[in-house]
Amino acid sequence: MDKFTDAVLFPGMGPARASELGRFLVIDPLARRLLGVAEQALGRSLLDPLAGTGEEYNEHTQIAFVLASLALAERAEREHGLVPIAVGGASFGERAAVVRAGALPVADLVRLVDAVACRERAYFETAHQDLVSQFIVRTPEPALGEILDGIGHELSGRFDDEVHLVTLHESDLDEFVRRVRAAGGYALTTMRPAAHARMLGGLRDRLAEEVFGGFGFADPILPIVSDQDGEPIRTGDGAASLLLESTVNAVRLPGLVHRFAEFGVGRVLVAGPDHLLHRLPGLTSAFTLLRADLRDTLKPRARPRLPEAVAA
């Protein structure tokens, strides 16, 4: 175990510029190969819609984000001799993790992401239009009780001791943000539509019925550590459930960090456009963190400050 101490962690999808993702998919040889697989799977161009998209959370940017993350991971592992013993993904990063672990081919994952995004768009056109998920940082968990007193909500993510994602009604958002700031915290990205909330059970059921039954997941070659409960996933059914249940289950990243440590992981590669993970004290204090991003060369990261903007 001491010899193999690497793991790969794929980030959630933050504010992503479609044009930047599109350029990377064209310029980078590994990404360009994945782009070809994706466009063949879709039966249409991926680059054309990316050229006319800003920072929208649509099927085109989602697919491009996954492809970029996988290409960055492949190069980093190859060039730096990394030998992962486990993989994981935070929120949207679960999708790339399932591919890297060998549970689903890239072509199938592309079709899955496309189908899920289309169903999500249709769902939120008529349901839960009043829900948002708000990232907050520098807000210790004990302070959340008082901040959220009297505000209907769900805790949709705990990424670190002071970094949380809260789902609530948009009519309560201004008051929530005011309380966070009054307590010394910061309110960052507001996610529309909302994510990782039990209130989205209707969407989860629709995805189970209309999408996931059409895909066959293999048993992963590498264990996928769940960002929902920290458990290692070793079956195809478990990999499918991880993606599906992410709709309604909160992200609990400290559980994943703890499991990596139990596995004896010493180095963690954060592979993909990342606005959050490489800044989390819980990760940076537990492992030697390496980063492979669109704009950064792979290098160890010291413990940094929290971000100005994040999203899942």
TrEMBL record:
Record keywords: Acyltransferase, Transferase
Reactions mediated catalytically: holo-[ACP] + malonyl-CoA = malonyl-[ACP] + CoA
Enzyme class, broadest EC rank: transferase
Superkingdom of origin organism: Bacteria
InterPro entries: Ac_transferase_dom_sf, Acyl_Trfase/lysoPLipase, Mal-CoA-ACP_Trans/PKS_FabD, VinK-like_small
SUPFAM superfamilies referenced in this protein's UniProt entry, alphabetically: FabD/lysophospholipase-like
The keyword Acyltransferase appears for this protein: yes
One matching Pfam family: VinK_C
Magnesium is among the record's keywords: no
UniProt-listed Enzyme Commission number(s): 2.3.1.39
Signal sequence annotation: none
Residue ranges occupied by any Malonyl-CoA-[acyl-carrier-protein] transacylase small domain in the UniProt entry: 136-191
Name of the featured protein: [acyl-carrier-protein] S-malonyltransferase
Species, as recorded: Amycolatopsis speibonae
